[in-house]
Amino acid sequence: MKWETVIGLEVHTQLATKSKIFSGSSTAFGAAPNTQASAVDIALPGVLPVLNKGAVECAIKFGLAIGATLNRINIFDRKNYFYPDLPKGYQISQLARPIVEGGALRIQVGDSERTINLTRAHMEEDAGKSLHEDFHGMTGIDLNRAGTPLLEIVSEPEMRSSAEAVAYARALHTLVTWIGICDGNMQEGSFRVDANVSVRPVGQAEFGTRREIKNLNSFRFLQQAIDYEVRWQIETLEDGGRIEQATVLFDPDTGETRMMRSKEDAHDYRYFPDPDLLPVKLDEDWIEAVRAALPELPAAMQARFQADYSVSAYDAGVLTGSRALADYFEAAAKACGQGKLAANWVMGELSATLNKAELDITQSPVSAVQLGALVARIHDGTLSGKLAKQVFEGLWEGAGEVDAIIEARGLRQMSDAGELEKIIDDVLAANPKSVEEFRAGKEKAFNALIGQVMRASKGTANPAQVNDLLKARLQ
Amino acid sequence: MSLSPDDVKRIARLARIEIDDVQAQATQGQLNTIFDLIATMQAVDTSGIAPMAHAQEVTQRLRADIVTETDRHAAFQAVAPAVENDLYLVPKVIE
Amino acid sequence: MSDASLSALAAQLAAKQVSSRELAQQYLDRIATLNPSINAFITLDADKTLAEAAVADALIAAGKAGPLTGVPIAHKDIFCTDGWLTTCGSKMLHNFVAPYDAHVIQRFKAAGMPSLGKTNMDEFAMGSSNETSYFGAVKNPWNTTYVPGGSSGGAAACVAARMAPAATGTDTGGSIRQPAALCGITGLKPTYGLVSRFGMIAFASSLDQAGPMAPSAKDCALLLNVMTGFDPNDSTSLEREKEDYTRDLDQPLTGLRVGLPREFFAEGLNNEVATAVEAAIAELKKLGATTVEISLANSKLAIPVYYVLAPAEASSNLSRFDGVRYGYRAPEYTNLDDMYCKTRAQGFGAEVKRRIMIGAYVLSHGYYDAYYLQAQKIRRLIADDFSAAFKTCDVILGPTAPGTAFKLGEKSDDPVEMYLNDLYTIPANLAGLPGMSLPCGFDAKGLPIGLQLVGNYFSEAKMLNVAHQFQRATDWHKRLPPQGEASGARSEG
């Protein structure tokens, strides 16, 4: 039987506010345990929540960025359950009337593009952390994270492969960091993905029973977990088994998913509107001010890069993978006026070198203006591709500006016909054998001669020109 | 309607309140008299009536996004049943 | 001293006839004598009280005294009080020393009013007799075999016995007004949102409201001036201009339209209470008021609605008591879940557990619409009845409770019988309206009878005006419990 995979993602993004969603505690990561847990965060008797305007503004930004409906009146509810990292015994979340409903995100898988629809995005508070290292058989609870604002972003179950799920997660990651509502740090848990996965026979209309893989904190784990889960579900069904709805965890060490032991209770969260918080009203003026302050969004920028800089859709997609990368590219392209060539350099030499050095674009030792100057020297013929790489190395090492490096290292491309012909004459005279072989029909001998010319010019000869001159001389 | 002993055990479980069979039975009787009282509101036609969640028709005030709290964990943990290394200790959590 | 009004005490302090320390000590002495038979206090700490009184004396000496600086007050043990045991009447918090002050406590501290101690109450404010307290029942000073009402039973009893010149209370379904009525004092539940709930341990968040309890309406007006005010830490606190609640006390009642809800004078009302209330109406008429019959047709549903909404909110509010961060933790357990279940089974009393379970049930899957949502809709109908009524009257009047104080143990085995005590007080909480109770007579057993006023939103000054004028014409609020006087006399002798 042929099977189809159905995936929907729920992504918890920590909002990049200074203070928590319902208290004035800092949200900074990595503080000593419980030093950023205020009376409200640890739920002392009698304390009350007051909503952080910054968190609401982040949610508005997101809603505008995905073209969603912003609920002008939205409501906080209590989700009741007991867990030691949940101090109040309930999580303040939004159920019936979330701040954001609908919207869509474009994703790219290989050469094809798809639109994934979003169901909703709602504000809620994060829980604390359970530290499982052994305190004489006890667990330690750190509530620093409790109350950190989250936007939970829920997609429709519209993805049909792990590759699509990863592409969606990446696009979402790009967007939330792009608009500055999330720092995107997956190691620190700023962007956590839950994947709802089911399979069904191709052609079947109803969905299969889903299992939810919790808390995936890297794109690689997301892919591995879904791939494992899909295989497991298909095997189970083909062996005549049934899928039970369940919450599972992914173990990166084994590459497998397993049922969570702690969630055996049938959940009954007893949601109801939080009486401590009033309906949240979004004024039109506020929404318009947030809209006006939004940066150009990745999809718009991708289209503009295609139009303005003649780059392919794919390249434009790569270049808008992050706002920093897009800004870098655009600055470089503007500096040289050569978008396509600048794009090749940004995605080629620069990206490769950054990768090797484990740096991101914001840490690049070569500035966008420098890279633009380099591209300009390629375009005006001063540098060949090969020479340009040497100049790039100079830039990377901090040896100065492009023209200075060219001068200092004698890397100017030799394009003077007279000078080149003189070198060619010398090379032909010194290599009569190769000349003979070429004339006898050996194409290889021609390449050897070109190599000799390049060597004699210390690599500065314009390769295209050498090619033409040499051909002319040998005919 | 009336609650069964299983209903009583289910809600005690939801509320994390230990209850044995004898207590469940006694509780069942009391809760049922209370629910008989509550049942009188069920005959009321409330179609078209908007639920009232708050006493005042006002909307949520928003707090500026600034850090106002300082570290008070020593004072807070002075009243905690079990603390070690500044962490609250609970019986082992199994995921 | 023991029957002096707050303004008289303040005048004595201002005239340096007595210091705040001396005054506090006098009350502490009286508490030492009377409290053992009344049990109105859970926590007393003379050193702290006297230290706060010394601060007040310094303020007075420095000429920085406010209207009530130096006058001591007792606080219901539902308000978190920095450095004081704050138990909410529960074993769950029997060892909880609050690390912060409730907003209300901050206000009284800022006003220079020393705390005499923390008063006894029904556990987590759930009760109408003060018998659910982990720290034992409070006795009614008018007859110690009777209940003082609840949940602010300790507050009402200590004021009635003049162990404190005033006290704070909280009212979710009548917890200020009903004990005020049963103990023969004056108590006011303000409009929801006027007094900050920050630091007041939550029972039912959308209904809870703190207010003053004292012998007279004038005292309550002075206390309300201290208690009310915007608090940015409570999202439901209202941003309003500060009012002087004493401003209209001396206005005549000529032309006042008093609404009499026919449902509050129907079946279930004790005859002696009805007679006393009728007499009070006659008195108000003499003072220039007119009466108009009104209907609060849906108020008969207030009790069922309340016993859905309040337990629902409470079941969630009380989830934080889990033995992890403060308070009681069961001594023995086998795992995390067992720790939760045993801690909560042992830490909460029977009534609290009952209400938590009712709340969990009405919110649970499949029952939410039939119970919780239906109750919220009827809550609106009840509030709408009041809006309609206030088109034809200025203040609504009726009995505070259907009867006078009942005997200790008389209703403690029958929750429904107990709940019916709040028949007349709950509607104001559901609507968020201000309500007050003031003494209007005694039954044949010598137990006090309370008269209830319910006003429109923010009409506290008007209600206090009506009550004050009534109290100028009557002396019910000046009567002192015979037993209290007797015990007091013995101690002095």
Structure description:
The complex is a heterotrimer of chains A (475), B (95) and C (493). Chain A has helices spanning 53-65, 162-178, 219-238, 284-293, 298-309, 313-319, 323-336, 339-356, 368-379, 385-397, 402-409, 417-430, 432-439, 443-456, 463-474; strands spanning 3-14, 51-52, 69-70, 73-74, 77-80, 90-93, 100-101, 104-109, 112-125, 129-135, 138-142, 149-155, 191-201, 211-216, 246-251, 256-259, 272-273, 280-281. Chain A is an alpha+beta fold and 475 residues long. Chain A folds into 3 domains: 3-287, no CATH class; 296-409, no CATH class; 417-474, Orthogonal Bundle (Arc Repressor Mutant, subunit A). In chain A, the strands form 4 sheets. In chain A, strands 1, 3, 7, 8, 9, 12, 13, 14, 15 and 16 form a 10-stranded mixed sheet that branches. In chain A, strands 6-5-17 form a 3-stranded antiparallel sheet, with no helix packed on it. In chain A, helix 9 (368-379) runs antiparallel to helix 10 (385-397), helix 12 (417-430) crosses helix 15 (463-474) and helix 13 runs antiparallel to helix 14. The model of chain A has no long low-confidence stretch (mean pLDDT 93). Chain B has 95 residues and is α+β, with helices and mostly antiparallel strands. Chain B has 3 helices and 3 strands; from the N terminus they run ααβαββ. Chain B has a domain at 5-43: Histone, subunit A (Orthogonal Bundle), CATH 1.10.20. In chain B, 35% of the residues lie in helices and 9% in strands. In chain C, helix 5 (153-160) runs parallel beside helix 6 and helix 9 (302-317) crosses helix 11. At the B-C interface, helix 1, helix 2 and strand 3 of B face helix 9, helix 10, helix 11, helix 12 and helix 13 of C. Strand 2 (51-52) of chain A pairs parallel with strand 1 (62-63) of chain B.
